[in-house]
Amino acid sequence: MATYLVERYAPATADRGDAVDRVARLAAEARRAGTPVRYLWSARLATDETWLCLFEAPDAGTVADLNRRAAFPFDRITPVDLVRGASGGPDEAQQEDDR
To answer: Starting from the edge strand earliest in sequence, which strands make up the sheet with 2-9, in order?
Structure first.
């Protein structure tokens, strides 16, 4: 699977917690139903109107469809290469919880 970064632009005051929860839940449901997609994380740039979300999926269309189903508007989806430092990366226990 490839990794995709989803960019969203919304006022810094906008609360996207519900949408993040929805997209994470729908990704888990899709995975259990056989669609190879994983929601990894979201971040809001504190000094900007930018939200970033990371997914693993076979293609950008799968990520776009998932975000549309979650009613979580986005501006761009870009394939990315993750670069991990010597410590490895995200907590493996958390990744196991997501499966």
So the answer is: 38-44, 50-57, 2-9, 76-80
